[in-house]
């Protein structure tokens, strides 16, 4: 197949790392390897864990496959909005959230999983911890080159520097877990506020308010685009017809629909929405324990969390989802002939170290990342999800001034952007 080339654009790490703008012949050996790993892991989970873990691996694979194909970003969406006023990706977020609340409302109201267990959304306190954490995360994701989901699917696609981001994401999440009791117990905060259960609106009323808010935000992005004469997003290469499912880019709206449905399936399978960063805190804490730290005495690992430290990581549903996202993105990238390790510079290495630390620490303080707090929180009708989005956008504005210090690009008004 002839390689398809498109106009270079500015996104995660600048034009030097936009090898993913080529559509090449499928990397069949890599596809086979990714599928084999997925099958072996699925069989292992089926043999040793509850069937829900195998189901979650499948959901994770589909999440990673979808994220990569659409290059569905949260970091880049916030940066496009903040830098040049392009709101196309933000509107896809609103579509995703609209479908998510539509699916979450009856599930939360009914209150049971596929297996009869309880269901609970992500509804967290609103206070200093959330404000500081979300703002710090917003800065970190712009320096680290991706949010929590972006880090995982970029690793699956072979973006080398994102391994650095992930390593320090884990470190930051572990330190954040150690410090979390201070932020939650010593700093002021309001109790968790649900638009459905704390206001008397019920899930039907909360759904109506949510849909109205999403429509309002979408209209605001259109007004900003018109005022700033924002550039359009560049077109990524793709196949035609049914082959587009497996090779090339997906429309953002299609990915938004799929991600919302998969998050609802996650809620129905394990009883809580999709999340990512709690697993990073677990991985880091297990490593810290091996290195001699008395992790079991930390406030974060008391109570319901205590057993996770002693158990296998494969009993942790978030870990299984994360592994699925990485493998799914790897298979998707190989199917498009796009898997390739990329070069690391001093600038993007330093930015990834700082960004990873900030994202890990910020996610613990803010009760989640762009997935757990923003996507999962808003889908669960939690006020903290909206505040997370506002503060992360504020952190993005500051990060626009910091990115050039590390040699990272910032879209300009005359750029085509991706």
Question: How does this structure look, described?
Answer:
- Keywords: Cell inner membrane, Cell membrane, Membrane, Transmembrane, Transmembrane helix, Transport.
- The chain crosses the membrane at residues 29-47, 53-74, 95-116, 122-140, 161-180, 200-224, 245-265, 320-339, 346-367, 373-402.
- The protein has 418 residues and is mainly alpha-helical.
- The chain has one domain (22-406).
- It contains 15 helices and 2 strands.
- It has helices spanning 28-48, 51-70, 75-84, 88-110, 128-144, 148-156, 161-185, 202-228, 252-270, 277-290, 306-310, 317-335, 346-365, 370-379, 383-402; strands spanning 126-127, 189-190.
- It has a two-stranded antiparallel ribbon.
- Helix 1 (28-48) runs antiparallel to helix 2 (51-70), helix 2 packs across helix 12 (317-335) and helix 5 crosses helix 15.
- The longest helix has 27 residues, at 202-228.
- The chain is globular and about 50 Å long.
- The two termini are 24 Å apart.
Q: Could you give a short description of this structure?
A:
It is built from 15 helices and 2 strands. It has 418 residues and is mainly α.
**How many angstroms separate the termini?**
24 Å
User: Any idea how many domains?
Assistant: 1
**Total DSSP helices:** 15
N-to-C SSE string, H for helix and E for strand: HHHHEHHHEHHHHHHHH
Q: Strand content of the residues, in percent?
A: under 5%
Number of beta-strand segments:
2
Mind summarizing the main beta sheet? 2 strands, antiparallel
Question: What's the gyration radius in Å?
Answer: 20 Å
Protein name: Sulphur transport domain-containing protein
Keywords: Cell inner membrane, Cell membrane, Membrane, Transmembrane, Transmembrane helix, Transport
Organism: Sporosarcina ureae
Family: Belongs to the TsuA/YedE (TC 9.B.102) family.
């Amino acid at each position: 197949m002839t390689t398809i080339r498109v106009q270079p654009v500015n996104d995660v790490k600048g034009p030097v790392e936009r090898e993913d703008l080529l559509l090449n012949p499928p990397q069949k050996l890599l596809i086979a390897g990714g599928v084999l790993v997925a099958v072996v892991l699925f069989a292992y989970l089926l043999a040793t864990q509850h069937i829900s873990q195998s189901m979650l691996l499948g959901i994770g694979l589909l999440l990673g496959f979808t994220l990569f194909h659409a290059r569905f970003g949260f970091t880049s969406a916030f940066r496009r909005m903040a830098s040049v006023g392009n709101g196309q990706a933000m509107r896809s977020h609103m579509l995703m959230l609209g479908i998510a609340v539509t699916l979450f409302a009856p599930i939360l109201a009914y209150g049971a999983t596929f297996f009869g267990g309880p269901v609970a959304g992500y509804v967290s306190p609103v206070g200093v911890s959330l404000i500081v954490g979300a703002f710090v995360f917003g800065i970190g994701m712009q320096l680290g080159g991706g949010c929590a989901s972006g880090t995982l699917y970029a690793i699956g696609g072979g973006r080398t520097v994102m391994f650095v981001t992930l390593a320090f994401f884990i470190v930051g999440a572990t330190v954040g877990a150690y410090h979390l009791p201070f932020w939650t117990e010593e700093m002021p905060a309001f109790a968790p506020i649900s638009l459905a259960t704390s206001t008397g609106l019920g899930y039907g009323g909360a759904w109506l308010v949510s849909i109205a808010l999403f429509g309002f935000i979408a209209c605001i992005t259109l007004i900003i685009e018109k005022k700033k004469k924002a550039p359009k997003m560049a077109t990524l290469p793709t196949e035609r017809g049914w082959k587009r499912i497996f090779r090339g880019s997906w429309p953002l709206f299609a990915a938004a629909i799929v991600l919302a449905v998969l998050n609802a399936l996650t809620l129905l399978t394990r009883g809580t929405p999709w999340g990512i960063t709690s697993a990073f805190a677990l991985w880091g804490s297990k490593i810290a324990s091996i290195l001699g730290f008395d992790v079991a005495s930390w406030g974060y690992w008391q109570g319901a969390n205590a057993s996770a430290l002693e158990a296998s990581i494969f009993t942790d549903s978030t870990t299984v989802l994360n592994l699925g996202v990485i493998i799914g993105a790897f298979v998707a990238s190989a199917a498009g002939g796009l898997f390739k390790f990329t070069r690391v510079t001093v600038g993007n290495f330093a930015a990834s170290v700082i960004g990873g630390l900030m994202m890990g620490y910020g996610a613990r303080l803010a009760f989640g990342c762009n997935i757990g707090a923003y996507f999962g929180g808003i889908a669960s009708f939690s006020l903290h999800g909206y505040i997370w989005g506002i503060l992360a956008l504020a952190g993005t504005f500051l990060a626009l001034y910091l990115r050039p210090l590390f040699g990272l690009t910032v879209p300009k008004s005359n750029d085509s952007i991706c």
